[in-house]
Design brief:
By secondary structure, this protein is mainly alpha-helical. It has five helices and two strands; from the N terminus they run H-E-H-H-E-H-H. A two-stranded antiparallel sheet has the order 1-2. The longest helix has 31 residues.
Length: 168
């Protein structure tokens, strides 16, 4: 069933490329509205990790049998991703972009969670390799991603704390 593996990986790859395009477009729009980027020093680490993770799946998962339960879990996670992106709308980007004077988004999953996008990403990093029965790859990716997210969330929290509009 190599065709199924190729189809799954192609769809995920296309999704990521489309998301990068949307993120770049949104970033340009936000910057044009007076926003600024913060914490860009770690962005390249995120890009390299995600590219390497996906390339690794292309190399290592092509011939593996597909686990349908994990595939359906992955599809549910992708629905959550759609909810996150829809909630952020034009403010969704892969970078830390601050729009001065604007409050943080508090709709959709952001009503319940501080960082739902990072939860989705962490789940994806673990679950997609599991679709192909690659527990070791899922665990290694999850550990690396956890370190990157720890760094990213600290930078983001500090940035938004400093940029928060005055309350009351």
């Amino acid at each position: 069933m190599i065709w199924l593996n190729i189809a799954i990986l192609t769809l995920v790859t296309v999704q990521r490329l489309v998301e990068l395009n949307i993120a770049q477009r949104n970033t340009k729009r936000l910057l044009a509205r007076g926003a600024y980027e913060a914490g860009s020093g770690h962005y390249w680490v995120i890009v390299v990790f995600h590219a390497a993770w996906l390339i690794g799946l292309w190399v290592l998962a092509r011939d593996n049998p597909v686990n349908w339960v994990w595939l359906f879990i992955f599809l549910a996670i992708e629905a959550m991703r759609g909810w996150v992106v829809a909630a952020l709308g034009e403010r969704w980007t892969t970078r830390i972009i601050v729009l001065p004077g604007e409050p943080l988004v508090a709709r959709g999953p952001y009503r319940y969670l501080r960082h739902p996008n990072y939860i989705v990403v962490a789940l994806e990093i673990f679950v997609l390799p599991m679709v192909f029965g690659m527990l070791w790859y899922a665990l290694a990716g999850t550990l690396i991603n956890a370190a990157i997210l720890y760094w990213r969330i600290r930078v983001e929290e500090e940035t938004f704390r400093e940029a928060a509009p005055p309350s009351g």
